[in-house]
Amino acid sequence: MWKNFILLLILAAFLSSCATKAQTGMGTGAAAGAIAGQAIGRNTGATLIGAAVGALLGYAVGNEMDKADQAKISAAYETMPDGRTTQWVNPNNGNQYAVTPQNTYTNSNNQNCREAEILATVDGRPEKIIQKACRDEYGNWRAQ
Fold first, then answer.
1. pTM to 2 decimal places
2. Contact (CB, 8 A) for 46 and 38
């Protein structure tokens, strides 16, 4: 039985290397939940219930981390003048971000839009992204 758990953990780690934070959280939560379910109930049903509950909780936590970083990017679109950089480190995963709005304009749909350079260091790998965002009908910034 422990061989299956070890295999599950290795598989979760492998899959998380190319997944979003929410998906990584879901995989890790499922593995931890399965181990806890087996330890508590000592049967297949308890293991499956533990995996399901762990997956749901892990997905929720991972998804919130994504939302927290996206909220800071939206705040940069809202408050930072062109050419000014804001930086932060996500305390949950150590990922680093630097956002510099570079161009403010009105598009053909008469929406206020901005372009920004995002320098992100995710899992130790630096990435440079040019992102465009426009205000939606509710005044929120939406990536294009």
1. 0.55
2. yes
Whether the Cβ atoms of residue 127 and residue 119 lie closer than 8 Å to each other: yes
Cβ pair 118, 126 in contact under 8 A: no
Tell me the sheet residues that pair with 127: 120
Model confidence over 12-32: pLDDT tens digits?
554 444 445 555 555 555 566
Q: What is the pLDDT of residues 40-94, one digit of tens each?
A: 777 777 677 766 766 654 554 444 447 888 899 999 999 999 999 999 999 888 8
- Tokens found for residue 89: 């480190």
| 126 backbone φψ class: left, alpha, beta (φ>0; ψ -120 to 50) | beta
* In the chain, domain spans: 2-66, 76-143
Per DSSP, 73 falls in state H
Rounded to 10 degrees, the C-alpha dihedral 41/43/44/45 comes to -50
- For 81-117, what is each residue's pLDDT tens digit? 999 999 999 988 888 999 999 999 999 999 999 999 9
HSE at residue 58, side-chain half, CA atoms within 13 A, is 22
Residue 125 sits at φ, ψ, to 5 deg, of -105, 120
Cα atoms in the 13 Å half-sphere on the side-chain side of 88: 14
